[in-house]
Amino acid sequence: MTAPPAPASPPPASADDGAGPAAPGLRVLLIDDGAHRVDLLRDALARQGCEVVGVVEQATLIHDCVLRLRPDVVIVDAESPTRDTLENLATLSARMPRPVVVFAEDGDQGPMRRAIQAGVSAYVVAGLQPGRLAPVLHVAIARFEQDLALREELSKAQAQLASRKQVDRAKGILMREQGLDEEQAYQRLRKLAMDRGEPIAQVARRVIDAHDLLRG
Hints:
The N and C termini lie far apart (61 Å). 31% of the residues are buried. The chain is built from 7 helices and 5 strands; from the N terminus they run βαβαβαβαβααα. By secondary structure, it is an alpha/beta fold.
């Protein structure tokens, strides 16, 4: 069995550590990508107390089904995940991220890498054993939560960087147009932000927009 590496801290359950059953009531969407073992999966999930909310046989329906059914986890059953399935999983990861587990029979590294790039949380080769289903789900959920936290941290850092660039540009405009030094320009922006009850980056954006409009 092959699964993505677990984060160092806190360590999630691995697929071999004998973790307990999957969370009762876990909502699961099954994707039949050609292996035709979804009945086995459905029975195994039911024994774990999970609810199978739907079975999808067309890759193009994945996003709409997730939007409508709101599963907690998506499981793909495949001999080897198809290009259509991976493309739609990538769209899902970008728009409505969910933990995704792929059970595959093809151990080739190519499909595995493409699956991870598409946002798959766990890729299991020749490992569809009902007794190991719960640990695999625990690994996938833990990996997904870690990746989501990292994505949110990156997005926050990018937003902060963009805000600093806007403030710096607005300061430059005030320095040139009003003969202020850098500290005076910053204090002018800060006072405007306090007076208006707006973030300083938003005020900076207004200064930039007004400047661009006048120069246009």
